[in-house]
Design brief:
The chain is built from 5 helices and no strands. With 123 residues, the protein is mostly helical. It has one domain. Helix 4 runs antiparallel to helix 5. The two termini are 27 Å apart. The relative contact order is 0.13.
């Protein structure tokens, strides 16, 4: 039995963006835990990302607003972090980190565009 039919997902893009928010939430919470809970903003974005993953998967109406808020939080965090990392570059292997941040920023924009375009389908 395919995964799509087991999860009762009508649109595969919904599953894709839900998976994106789950992965982001887990990664941010993992980093939050590693750094002795000092990076509170990562914990907040991580928890909100997991909640957004659930809302997008269930296509809840409030998920549209949460995705918009995560877009603002995520792009602010991502661009400032990317800028500081490029300007200061105080660690080796920065290229992989920069590519990951750019991918995160692009996927955040794409997720917002998709959810905003399909906002009438969210109940």
């Amino acid at each position: 039995m395919p995964l799509k039919s087991r999860l009762k997902v009508e649109n595969p893009a919904v599953l894709l963006f839900s998976a994106f928010y789950v992965i982001v939430g887990i990664v941010f919470l993992f980093i939050f835990a590693i750094y002795n809970l000092r990076l509170l903003h990562l914990g907040i974005i991580g928890v909100l990302s997991l909640i957004a993953a659930y809302g997008v998967f269930r296509m809840e109406k409030w998920a549209v607003w949460l995705v918009a808020a995560l877009f603002l939080l995520g792009t602010t965090f991502g661009t400032i972090t990317l800028y500081d990392s490029i300007v200061l570059q105080t660690f080796e292997g920065g290229l992989l980190f920069h590519v990951a941040l750019i991918a995160y920023l692009i996927l955040t924009v794409v997720a917002l565009i998709y959810v905003a375009a399909k906002r009438k389908d969210f109940e």
